[in-house]
Amino acid sequence: MKENFAQKISHEDLVFMKIQDRSPLYLPQLKSFDAVIIEYSDKLATEEIVKKIRCHNMESVYLIPIFVYKIYEEESGSRNPLIDGTIHSLNNLGKVAEVTRKINNKLTT
Amino acid sequence: MTLNCIIVDDEKTSRVAMSSLVDHSDSLNLVGIAESGEQALELLDEKQVDLIFLDVMMPSMSGFEFLDEIEDNHNVKVVLVTGKKDFAVKAFDYAISDYLVKPVSRNRFKESVQRIRKSVSVQSDSDFPSNLLLLKLIRFMHSRDISFLEPVPSRKSLLGFSYAMLTENLDFDNEADALDILEEAEKDEIISGKFVDTIYLCNSCSNSYLNIREVCPNCDSSHLVSNDLIHHFSCAYMGEISEFKAAGYGETLICPKCEKKLKHIGVDYDKPAAIFNCQGCAHSFQDPLIRAKCLNCGADQKVEHLVKKEVKKYHLTAKGKDMAEGNHYIKIRKNGEQMPDEGESTDYFIRALKNEIKRKSIAEFDSSVGMFRLWNISELYQRIGNVAKRDLQKELQQILSNDLAPGDEITFWDYETILMLFPEQRKEEVESVMDEMGERMKELIKDNFDDFKLELRMAVLKVSEDISYERAINELLEKTSKSNV
Questions:
Q1: Which of B38, B73, B139 lies closest to A63 in CB terms?
Q2: Is B485 inside any structural domain?
């Protein structure tokens, strides 16, 4: 596996991968996670990594729930329709878990 | 159909032997060789791979572990290549396409490739790129409960709008395919659309970022200066505003004919029109042409030749939801680049002509083969762009087909040449039918492009057992380069 800067976060029965938007990422490893949280530092870098995930040819990669972790809210205009939510803290992942479960349930039914 | 394949084997001798077999196959294109499962995963991530020749016994990641990693990549076929026969049952669980035992014989390899090609061509409809993209889209919409897929205005998009999951999965130059895919999916009732806006696209590259401006009808220059035309009621003099300004002072207008001061617009004068002066050729005119210059490919076209498209927002229908849940296969076909009747039908035409030549040697009847050459059509194609070109060709084929009898054959030999086979019809009869067809084609072109006159040439040849199909076609090509309708 390529070296990466991913961090594994467990929440109840779910496992999320947290990555930085500028870090290299080996996409097939996403399939072992329930969702991915991208730590935002730059708009273009975040857009680029989201696009790479959604353009992958493995379903468990391109359909994975994506959340963007932004410490500060920015006035950045319209929401990216390819992401499933934005969070401002990693202390409470309840909302992320809820959305992830909803998506994953839809995909397994 | 050529399949992109990779070889995954930790043993060098096996890799060399397999790549030699692949090199000798016309159906395969070797896009990579991996020494381990990990390397193969990277290759899969980087390349478009249709087929994997996979060794089972590898040190760090076995062939089966590799298969676990790619379990939901349904687009790739796998052939296990191993020194042992013991894995056959387990291989069956993984639904692999074939199982080859080393050393692999040339015949067994050939047989395996043929079998896979056959299964790929059966699946080719569902694996067609538009279908895969549509599947991605509807799975995404369904899993997110997206009520409407909205077109998002985007300066970075070729169309000026982007559709989530579709636009990102297409190269910039092919983004217009998104509209075709959505249109086909709507026709198939997979999604349902609601009008949002109308867009006009370059007829050459489908770009929406256009510079629309007035140009001189004489020299096409956009370097124009416009002047209001003034009609002075009391002396009936009509001239450009610059003449009235020159005779006046400051903003005051004086009539150059009667030297009266113009006071109130609508009372003693009006401005009935504007006059354009071309700075390129000094031509003066009232009705400029409106042209659109594409800021992507540079094509400069009349606005009436732009491609008009509707932009809609879409929601999944019940059928679409069913497909998203995997209960039905998706089978749409996007309008391709090919000519209306290219490829298989040209081969079919040749087979039909060969059969007719054979038939002629055993039966007593006259059959004919005819050709139309649309000698100057490429000028028109260039002017109207690719999308309108395909539509025009479809229409031409349609009107010609209306005059054909059952059993007659027609094909576009190339973009300007149409070939027709008339079994059991005499040359004189066919000439008369083709004369009428020619008139209809000319009318169609005239009705749609009034400033273009089609130069049409035609020839008819009696099918003879003494002339091969190649010679017949060559003779027709030669004749249509000389004779005019």
A1: B139
A2: no
